[in-house]
Amino acid sequence: EVQLQQSGPELVKPGASVKISCKTSGYTFTEYTMHWVKQSHGKSLEWIGGINPNNGGTSYNQKFKGKATLTVDKSSSTAYMELRSLTSEDSAVYYCANGNYAMDYWGQGTSVTVSS
Amino acid sequence: EIQMTQSPSSMSASLGDRITITCQATQDIVKNLNWYQQKPGKPPSFLIYYATELAEGVPSRFSGSGSGSDYSLTISNLESEDFADYYCLQFYEFPYTFGGGTKLEIK
After folding, report:
1. pLDDT score recorded for residue A42
2. How far apart are CA A49 and CA A33, in angstroms?
3. For chain B, which ranges sit under pLDDT 50?
4. How many CB pairs under 8 A join A and B?
5. Considering only CA atoms, which of A23, A28, A47, A43 is closest in space to residue A100?
6. Torsion-angle region of residue B31: left (phi > 0), alpha (psi -120 to 50) or beta?
7. CA-closest candidate to residue B4, choices B103, B104, B101
8. How much is the pLDDT for B53?
9. How far does the CA of residue B10 sit from the closest CA of chain A (Å)?
10. What is the DSSP letter of B96?
11. Is B95 part of the contact surface with chain A (CB cutoff 8 Å)?
């Protein structure tokens, strides 16, 4: 069974950075591109970007270039997303997702709240 | 960037009804379209892939259709557990884009 376990909620100050993790199990880590998705409160979903765990190759939504950095650690089958220079606009739930059809499997979500 | 226009944004229906949600892309996405269901506080749940294929474990009252730039999700014989938010996703090209969502409420 594919499982994506994300790190816990974050409360961060404006201007700071945060790094969210997505630990995987139940499949070969390098099999699927890992995608990250943002969902602001009460709103729709936005694709942030994706990373190929085989070679670390990334594709980003232009809107999130400079905001998000995607990385992987193959040794621990974990994907990471770092968000920098946080503002209130970055307060949201962030999901990791992957699968044969882009996003079959989803993590439980990580809530990021940006507040002083 | 491919825009996905989803409609309606909200709707109400009764138990046992049949409803249809549509997504229109700004170009041909060659059936590279998924549908998801989302309940409050939960991640999206995978319903349909490649426009018409039912994901594992999804009840047969859910179905998808469409081609080119126009797609739809139909739910027949609505059950109480079906009242949720629904989203389409195009994964034909980067950046992947979602529809704006449909909130399905009980009448």
Report:
1. 84
2. 10
3. none
4. 58
5. A28
6. left
7. B101
8. 98
9. 13
10. P
11. yes
How far is the C-alpha of A53 from the C-alpha of A50, rounded, in Å?
9
**Residue of A44, A105, A108 with shortest CB distance to B87:** A44
Residue A96 has pLDDT above 90, yes or no: yes
Under a CB-based contact definition with an 8 Å cutoff, are residues A104 and B46 in contact?
yes
Q: Give the H/E segment covering residue A106.
A: strand A105-106
- Is the minimum CB–CB distance between B92 and chain A shorter than 8 Å? no
Neighbours of A11 (CB within 10 A): 11
Nearest CA of chain A to the CA of B59: how many Å? Answer: 16
The reply to whether A105 touches chain B by the CB within 8 Å rule is yes
Taken in order B44, B50, B54, B60, the sign of the CA dihedral is: positive
Task: Decide if pLDDT at A91 tops 90.
Answer: yes
Place of tokens 């139909």: B74
Q: Which of B85, B91, B96, B97 to mutate to test the interface with A (most CBs of A within 10 A)?
A: B96
Distance from C-alpha of A5 to C-alpha of A15, rounded to nearest angstrom: 27
**Residue A4 in this model has a pLDDT that exceeds 90:** yes
- How does pLDDT run across A48-85, given as a tens digit for each residue? 999 999 999 999 999 999 999 999 999 999 999 999 99
Q: Is A62 on the interface with B (CB under 8 A)?
A: yes
In the numeric block, the tokens 């069974």 are attached to A1
> Which residues in chain A have their CB less than 8 angstroms from residue B8's CB?
none
A103 touches chain B (CB under 8 A): yes
